[in-house]
Specification:
269 residues, eleven-stranded antiparallel β-sheet, five-stranded parallel β-sheet, 5 helices, 16 strands, 17% helix, 40% strand
């Protein structure tokens, strides 16, 4: 890791934390690291904030595969993507300088909407109705029509995203070493007339998930609310969405003895 000496800090800090960032800059320079203002010149990108800031840092810098990402929290406790605290940020600088870090690789999913572009996600893609009405989707696994979903919406999450929105609607937590994606229902409609699986299901990285939006001239379900991680995707008249596991992976810095499952235990137990 010795050649990785250029660091870019992604942040939106208040005046109090801005002073702490100054201390972090000085620590980095002390250990021979270079602070760059353009993320394209960096080989380490560190977000300063919370998990949401980390997701934004990855998205705004283009999901780069040729650099390492790190999360620094401004809060008192560590989180799923933040391995370091701003109050003790010199720990990260020392670890980088002394090569005491390990690299973990997180899988991404790719979302294609009506051929209008492919959008990567680190956490999840979510889709739901933009109006107060049951949302209807035809769900295909590869070429198989699996079910017709009726309810509030669906979440398609990565393994690391399984601890976020997915978990809040009773999805399973998935080991990020498994190349897969998880589909979880949000308030599905199940009765004698309509039926869905009624449970989350996990698809291999070799599968393609296709969602076809049902709409008619009397409603606007073809203009659904879609989320890419913590950003909204605004596209009118949506017909077909295809989701698959990406060939790309995000590389993140982690301290030794701080595995994904240690993070899960620390966060939830």
């Amino acid at each position: 890791m010795g050649h990785r000496r250029n660091i870019y800090f992604y942040h939106r800090l208040d005046s109090e934390n801005q002073l702490k960032l100054t201390d972090l800059d000085e620590s980095a320079k002390k250990y021979g690291l270079t602070i760059v203002k353009d993320h394209r010149e960096a080989n380490i990108i560190a977000s300063i904030g919370d998990d949401g800031t980390f997701l934004q840092a990855v998205r705004k810098t283009g999901f780069r595969e040729d650099c390492l990402y790190a999360g620094i929290t401004t809060k008192d406790i560590l989180s799923m993507y933040c391995d370091f605290k701003l109050d003790d940020s010199t720990k990260m600088v020392e670890a980088v300088a002394n090569e005491q870090l390990e690299v973990r690789r997180y899988p991404l999913i790719e979302v294609e909407v009506d051929g209008q572009g492919t959008f990567p996600c680190l956490n999840e893609f979510s889709i739901r109705s933009s109006i107060i009405k049951t949302f209807v989707l035809d769900v295909f696994v590869d070429e198989l029509h699996f079910e017709t979903f009726r309810g509030d919406g669906l979440i398609v999450s990565t393994p690391t995203g399984s601890t976020a929105y997915n978990k809040s609607v009773h999805g399973a937590i998935v080991d990020p070493l498994l190349p897969c994606m998880q589909v979880t229902e949000v308030a599905s409609l199940n009765n004698n007339k309509y039926r869905t699986l009624g449970a989350p299901f996990i698809l291999s990285g070799e599968r393609t998930l296709t969602l076809k939006v049902f709409s008619d001239k009397n409603d606007s379900n073809d203009y659904p609310t879609m989320g890419l991680d913590n950003e909204a995707l605004s596209i009118r008249h949506v017909d077909k969405i295809q989701i698959k596991l990406s060939d790309k992976k995000i590389k993140t810095l982690k301290l030794r003895d701080n595995s994904f499952w240690e993070k899960v235990k620390r966060t939830f137990l």
